[in-house]
Amino acid sequence: MALLRVEGLSKRFGPTLALDGLDLEVRPGEFLALLGGSGSGKSTLLRLVAGFEAPDSGRILLQGRDLAGLPPPARPLGMMFQNYALFPHLSVFDNVAYGLRREARPRAEIARRVAEALAMVGLEALAARRPHQLSGGQRQRVALVRALVKRPPLLLLDEPLGALDAGLRERTGFELRALQRATGAGFILVTHDQAEALALADRVAVLDRGRVAQCGPPAELYERPASRFVARFLGAANVLEGRVAADGAVEAAGGRLALDHGLAPGGALALALRPERIRLLAGPPPAVNAVAGTLRELAYRGDGWIALVALADGTELRVALPAAAAPPPPGSAVTLGWDAAALVPLAG
Ligand SMILES: Nc1ncnc2c1ncn2[C@@H]1O[C@H](COP(=O)(O)OP(=O)(O)OP(=O)(O)O)[C@@H](O)[C@H]1O
């Protein structure tokens, strides 16, 4: 059985349709990332699951039970939202113990469970401190174990790493995933950071205008995006608009493109092509999967280069080159090529 099942969920705020018949499933023990641009409905979905808002239509089932009408505290969920304020006047221990005390658990059990929870994130030595005596990353970890100490089957996290700097963000991300595996809880993590979603999640759901545009394991979304939207949103893929010629090759971007499998001729077709799958070619171009263009812009990124190449038909390709590629200066004529397997047909 699914841990969480969301069926046909819709929510309107005045003229804005924040969720538009959204369907989603989270499996037991799964780390699911909700990825989407600003206003795509990520936070609204989390707020509806948490019970802070009621849907206009649709159902939310947790472990098979319809949550309709249940107030937030009655929902068996842990939550860590953007403004995860800790109680400033309470110690780390008391912050984490808060939820267990409200359940009137025996003192000895509370002491044991809080100690275990703090040990999971390496904060047992800081139990007596107040929040203002902690670093940002430490506060964030206290908020996390506070949400987990009641062992909820599902934890909702809204941009939990958003306030941390890049280095701490990556480290805390790894900790988050280790904690998820150790507890076996299902996690839903809202983020607008695609690298974070791809790195941490078992599956990623890409949201677009209140619907799930695609949901699947990170590599599947990245390698086989279903639509132009997902291809561009994840990893800034190039999208080539073309037409299938009589011999099954694709005419696009002013060149002839061959896929690694046959296509029925005649139709219009969009193909995704990742920037890092494109190479600079020297010498005469091959007959297929190569195009000539002019290098317009070049940016050094430390681990490599990003080049913008304008083709004769006006298409602009984004090309990621390795640091050792030694690209020619802007204004140069270049030939680009790629393997047939790099071309991914898009359905929408
Ligand atoms: N309480 C509200 N009143 C009016 N409009 C709202 C309300 N909450 C959300 N919206 C609107 O619903 C849409 C979805 O908002 P939501 O906060 O779910 O997006 P999001 O994907 O979380 O965006 P962000 O990444 O910017 O946080 C937006 O257009 C937003 O302006």
TrEMBL record:
UniProt keyword list: ATP-binding, Nucleotide-binding, Transport
Q: Where is the ABC transporter domain?
A: 4-234
Q: Which GO terms describe its molecular function?
A: ATP binding
InterPro entries attached to this UniProt entry = AAA+_ATPase, ABC_SmlMolc_Importer, ABC_transporter-like_ATP-bd, ABC_transporter-like_CS, Mo/tungstate-bd_C_term_dom, P-loop_NTPase, Transp-assoc_OB_typ2
Keyword ATP-binding in record? yes
Its recorded name reads ABC transporter ATP-binding protein
